[in-house]
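Researcher: I'd like a structural prediction for the single chain below. Treat it as a standalone chain; there are no partners to consider.
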Amino acid sequence: MSFESLGLSTEILRAISEKGYNTPTPIQQQAIPLILEGRDIMGGAQTGTGKTAGFTLPLLQRLISTAAPHKGRRPLRALILTPTRELAAQVHESVQTYGRHLPLKSAVVFGGVSINPQKQKLIKGVDILVATPGRLLDHVGQRSVDLSKVEFLVLDEADRMLDMGFIRDIRKVLALLSKQRQTLLFSATFSNDIKKLANDLLKTPALVEVARQNTAAENVTQVVHPVDKKRKRELLSQLIGSNNWKQVLVFTRTKHGANRLAEQLNTDGITSAAIHGNKSQGARTKALADFKSGKVRVMVATDIAARGLDIDQLPHVVNYELPNVAEDYVHRIGRTGRAGHEGEAMSLVCVDELKLLKDIERLINREIAKDIIPGYEPDPSIKAEPIQNGRSGKPKQGGRRSSAPARSHKGGPAPIHANGNKGNRARRSSGHANQGSR
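Model: Treating it as a single chain, here is the predicted structure.
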């Protein structure tokens, strides 16, 4: 299948060609025709499979195909909600890239920066708005945006938005939208909360999945290096130095841990920067730019960055600490091995994290290869200790999740293929919610 066969305009096809793409990915092949038909979509795909273009391309096509004359300020017609600033910026870049030859205007709004320049642009009128929920409601409160004319709503990374406590903000936004709209919901995991949200949002949705949920990309090589907790930093520096890695994304559980590790790596002579929700937007943007350009060799991030970072051909991801929620492992390692490239994901695992590792292996339905580095053999006399500072901030005995991820579609939308045939993390937490919006 080619992009030409999908029913996209010559202007959009020209932008795709200029980007260097020739063949649509599986999720694009399945989602684009359904979206162009006006169907509501509940989409799931592994990260790095072209999901953003999967909804951006048909959204642009629908906007130019259904444009109506208007007087005065152009009404906002398409709204895309994302959980983090980085993801919002990334999606907006995609909108600009594929819509460069179209007579459409777009904007992106998120917290951490001055609201006034955003306000001035919105008041002039835009067709497409990419936003984080909190900052969008700030603009609603200041009357710089009118949501009543929105025809197309996209919720990107819906699972992360619910996990970060955005459900109240999302419901406030929904109350301001017209019920006569097309809604596209994309989520990496289909939990019961996501299914409930889908039932409230979508009308006879088509379910589009290109791979079994909660699976890691096949072109990412995964390995676990068992090591004592106190020797992790030493081993990480050894791996980076001895292998001459030039670009490494390292994940920690906490913001404080990210800052401390970045400082320690810099002391070791390895240029590093930390990125997390407490950093200003300017600091986050600079850290990411320096990392992409090679000025910074290692970027240490918390899970807030796992969904919003899109780095071409990133070769190495390291889990310095395993996440307390198994699904986050899939999103972390999904930062490498994108767009068909090979990637390598390593996890430094101490005795405290063995139960977390079992949860991850159960989720991805495979055992991850173990490789003990000579000279870093774990001390068998060390006993496991509770892990502090998970998402809830409470100690966890190995971080085992209290419930398994939803694996069936019972109670959710029935799968619908391309031929049309059927086949209380909601609380608002200032710590997590503000990372994405304020």
